[in-house]
Design brief:
Order of helices and strands of chain B: HHHHH
Structural class of chain A: mainly alpha
Number of domains of chain A: 1
Shape of chain A: elongated
Distance between the termini of chain A: 60 Å
Strand content of chain B: under 5%
Largest sheet of chain B: none
Oligomer: heterodimer
Radius of gyration of chain A: 19 Å
Helix content of chain B: over 70%
Helix content of chain A: over 70%
Number of domains of chain B: 1
Number of strands of chain B: 0
Order of helices and strands of chain A: HHH
Number of helices of chain B: 5
Strand content of chain A: under 5%
Structural class of chain B: mainly alpha
Number of strands of chain A: 0
Distance between the termini of chain B: 56 Å
Largest sheet of chain A: none
Radius of gyration of chain B: 21 Å
Number of helices of chain A: 3
Largest interface: A-B, 47 and 52 residues
Chain lengths: ~110, ~140
């Protein structure tokens, strides 16, 4: 990688950090729970991108495995938090049949 | 834009020193610069949209759409810079998982907010109700 490309990667990593900091503002000051959850999800995606760019900057490509782990864990954490705030518990099926819930066509 | 031309000229000059033109180097450099710039534009636009839009559902729209496209473009730029096949496969795997999980998480958050009764902020033009649409 040429030095010019290295500086370009450094600048893009800096812009990703700025984007993460702005998303942290929505995470702190979000009016509802779902705004915060959206901010956490988007922050995790930007973390994955920053890890990939950072591994290219420092020249050690092993860290892409950590980025892969972050991508999967971010999705599972979002689904788990949503399920917890929906059912107030985690050991229920996602597709449980409930006749009284809203939006049920039957 | 001038950075793109400078980097392309640098790659072409480095190839001329070896008395043959490294076309793959030129193409990968230009592809990396364009793709990374577009990806950063989409990511920053999504972040500003999440900060400035007035409603949860519009914020969700901004974040969900732009995060998917921006992430794929930035990972494409890194794939152009990868130097061995293992690295390309790892980055493709990251791109595939982000491409699958990011819209799914967006859909799950929107569905949970709708089920919890969070009302969207409506203007003078609104969608018809579900009951009217069914009858």
């Amino acid at each position: 990688m040429s030095p010019l490309m290295g500086y370009f990667m450094l600048g893009s990593a800096f812009l990703l950090i700025i984007s993460m900091a702005l998303m942290l503002m929505r995470l702190i000051g979000g009016p509802t729970l779902y705004d915060r959850l959206l901010a956490v999800n988007s922050f995790g995606t930007k973390t994955v991108l920053f890890l990939c760019v950072f591994c290219f900057i420092i020249g050690r490509p092993d860290g892409v495995d950590i980025a892969l782990l972050y991508a999967l864990m971010n999705f599972i954490a979002t689904i788990a938090v949503l399920k917890f705030f929906n059912y107030r518990a985690l050991d229920v099926g996602l597709m449980q049949r409930d006749e009284t819930r809203r939006g049920d066509p039957s | 834009m001038s950075l793109i031309f400078a980097a392309a000229a640098e790659a072409a000059h480095a190839a001329d020193a070896a008395h043959h033109t490294d076309w793959w180097g030129v193409i990968s450099t230009i592809g990396t610069l364009i793709s990374m710039s577009a990806g950063l534009f989409f990511v920053l636009a999504g972040t500003i949209g999440v900060l400035r839009l007035p409603d949860f559902y519009t914020r969700l729209h901004a974040a969900g759409m732009t995060d998917t496209l921006g992430a794929e473009l930035i990972l494409l730029a890194l794939i152009f810079q990868a130097d061995n096949l293992q690295m390309v496969l790892k980055l493709l795997l990251v791109a595939f998982f982000l491409f699958v999980t990011s819209p799914t998480a967006t859909h799950a958050v929107a569905h949970a907010a709708y089920r919890a009764g969070l009302k969207p902020l409506l203007g003078p033009y609104r969608a018809p109700d579900i009951e009217e649409d069914a009858s």
